[in-house]
Amino acid sequence: MSINFNDGKWLNEPASWHTDETGLTVTTGEKTDFWRETYYGFTRDSGHFLAFPTGDSFTAQIRVQGEFRTLYDQAGLMVRIDEKRWVKTGVEFTDGEPFLSTVVTDGRSDWSVAQPFKELEDFRVRVTVANGALRIQASRDGSFWPLLRLAPFPAAERYEVGPAACTPERSGLKVRFSEFSVEAAITTGLHDLS
Asked: Which domain of life is it from (predicted)?
C-alpha cells in the first residue's frame, strides 16, 4: 500500500520540507543525528523522522535521492519502538564516499556499512520486521535486492516506520523520498533477491 506522506507524524520536524503528488523533499537541520552511547559516549535523538504506525510485522520500502557529500550525511528508513530501540538504514557518507549503512539500537547503537553498489544518489531500501528479526535489503533498480543485514530486533505489538534524514556535521542536505510503501511482511527465502 502506497503511503501519503502528509499522514505521517514528525519526530524533530525539519524547518524546510514539502510534499507533492510524487514524494517528500526534506532539507536537514544543523547537527541532526540518531545515536546512543557506543564508542562516542553520547546520545542523540535529534534527526528528522516522519513516522507511520504499523502492526507487529511488515515490509516497508522507499526510494531515496540526494547528493551525499559531507561526513555522516545520511538518509533512508527508520523503524522505531521508542528512543532506546530503533533502526536506521540507508545511505551514509563516510571515509570520503557513500556507503549503505545500518544502525541497530537496543539500548546502545551499533553500526555496519556495506557497498554492494556505489551509485547511491538514487537507490531504494527495504526493511522487513517479523518474529523478532529485522531483514534489510537495498536496490539500485527496484528489482534486484541484495541483503544488507539480518539482525535480531525486539518483537513489539506495534512499530513506527518512515523516512529519516540527518546531518551530524552540517545542515542543508536536500533529500527526496518517493515510492514509499508498507505491506505485509514478505516471506520469500533469505537468498531470494527479488
From this structure: Bacteria
Give the domain 5-183 fold. Answer: Jelly Rolls (2.60.120)
Q: What is the CA radius of gyration of the chain?
A: 15
Q: Tell me what pLDDT residue 2 has.
A: 74
b/e for 39-67, b at 16 or more Cβ within 10 A? Answer: eeeebebbbbbbbbebeebbbbbbbbbbe
Residue identified by cell 539500537 is 105
Q: Which of 71, 28, 70 is nearest to 49 (CA)?
A: 28
pLDDT digits (tens, 9 = 90+) for 10-38: 999 999 999 999 999 999 999 999 999 99
- Domain parsing of the chain, residue ranges: 5-183
Dist. CA 130–CA 142, nearest whole Å: 22
Sheet holding 174-183, edge to edge: 16-19, 23-27, 174-183, 58-66, 122-130, 133-139, 147-152
Say whether pTM exceeds 0.85.
yes
Q: Give the pLDDT confidence of 135-194 residue by residue, as tens digits.
A: 999 999 999 999 999 999 999 999 999 999 999 999 999 999 999 999 999 999 999 999
Which residues contact residue 53 at a Cβ distance below 8 angstroms, ignoring those fewer than 6 apart? Answer: 158, 159, 160
Q: Render pLDDT for 77-102 as a digit per residue (tens, 0 to 9).
A: 999 999 999 999 999 999 999 999 99
Classify strands 9-11 and 48-54 as parallel, antiparallel or unpaired.
antiparallel
Question: Can you read off the three cell numbers belonging to residue 47?
Answer: 534527526
